[in-house]
Every structure is written in C-alpha cells, then in structure tokens.
Amino acid sequence: MTSRAVARLKESLVLPTLITGLLLLAMLTSPGFAMSTAPKPEKNIVDTAAAGGFTTLVTAVQAAGLEETLRGEGPFTVFAPTDAAFAKIPPEQLDALLKDKEALTKVLTYHVVPGRVMASDVAKLNSAKTVQGQSVTIDTREGVKVDEAKVVQTDIVASNGVIHVIDSVILPK
C-alpha cells in the first residue's frame, strides 16, 4: 500500500470516528442515560431514616404500627422532622402522643405524601395532599416551608421514595 493510499484511508476514518465519539459522549452525559445507570438505593424509607439519625421519628413510626407500610413498595415522600424538631414538643405531650396510636398515626401520615416528589417538584407546588387526607401548605417565598416547618435538607433518596428533612413537627388541622 502506498503512502498516499494510507493517507486516504486515515482521512476516510477520521470523520466516522469523530461522529462515533461525539455520539458516545452525548449518550453518556444525557440525563436519561445517567438515570438508567444510577444504582438504585438499597434502603427503604425506614432504614434510610434510621441510618440518618431520625431516632424519634423511627420510634414514632414503630409505635404507630406504620413501619411495615413505610418499608413497603411505595413510593412515598416523607417530610421527616429531625430529633430536634420532636424536642420542641414538651416531653409530657410527646410521651402522650407516642402512647396514643390513633393520634400518632394521624400526625405521622400527615407527614407523608403519596408518590416520589423531588425537591424540584415540591418547589412548583402550593399544597400537597397527604396520606392522612388533609393537604399541607407549601410556601416557596423564602426557602421552602411545609405548613410552618422549614425544609432544611432535600432529596434523600430511598428505594421506595424520598425524604425531605423539616425543622418542626407539623400537625393536621
């Protein structure tokens, strides 16, 4: 093969190689590709909350008999109060709530919205219907608030939903 033939062969391979490389780059960086290859979280809502230090919330979920449900298929969106949020409730009131399964269930299910509602979706809403039946108010004027609770962390993804951390326990009306 002459040097001229080799040069033509190299030139003929440059464009297809370049196109193939660009297509591969586009595919690897596209959101659809990234979502389909991202590993699915292994922990469900309850295990994710327990691992995240939501001790009082997990204790309350167990006391209300909701643990099996929140370990289920879902998907669920949980507005999860921190332990500090529960500490804002006077101890005698919190103890009484933890002993009243019906009232506790109403309070906890008021923190749960059916479906996986990511932060970008929450920011577009002005309310969301909870599993308890009533709707929470969502205010995005100064950060994000759910009723009067500030959302302090978002999009903690679990295998069966998502957790958004709030700084107060919210109560049904």
Report on this structure.
- The protein is an alpha+beta fold and about 170 residues long.
- It has 2 domains: about 5-35; about 45-165, FAS1 domain (Roll).
- The chain contains 9 helices and 7 strands; from the N terminus they run H-H-H-H-H-E-H-H-H-E-H-E-E-E-E-E.
- The protein has helices at about 5-30, 30-35, 45-50, 55-65, 65-70, 85, 90-100, 100-110, 120; strands at about 75-80, 110-115, 125-130, 135-140, 145, 150-160, 160-165.
- The chain has a 7-stranded mixed beta sheet.
- A hairpin with a 2-residue loop joins strand 6 and strand 7 (about 160-165).
- Helix 4 (about 55-65) crosses helix 8.
- The protein is globular, with a radius of gyration of 24 Å.
- Mean pLDDT is about 85; it is low at about 20-25.
Q: CATH H level of the largest domain: which superfamily?
A: FAS1 domain
CATH topology of the largest domain: FAS1 domain
State the distance separating the first and last CA atoms.
85 Å
Which term fits the overall shape?
Answer: globular
- Number of helices in the DSSP assignment: 9
Chain-averaged pLDDT: 85
Would you tell me the structural class of the helices and strands? alpha+beta
List the helices and strands and how they pair.
Elements: H1 3-29, H2 31-37, H3 45-51, H4 55-64, H5 67-71, E1 76-81, H6 83-87, H7 91-99, H8 101-109, E2 112-114, H9 119-122, E3 127-129, E4 135-139, E5 145-146, E6 149-158, E7 161-166
Helix pairs in contact: 4-8
What does this entry show, briefly?
This protein is an alpha+beta fold.
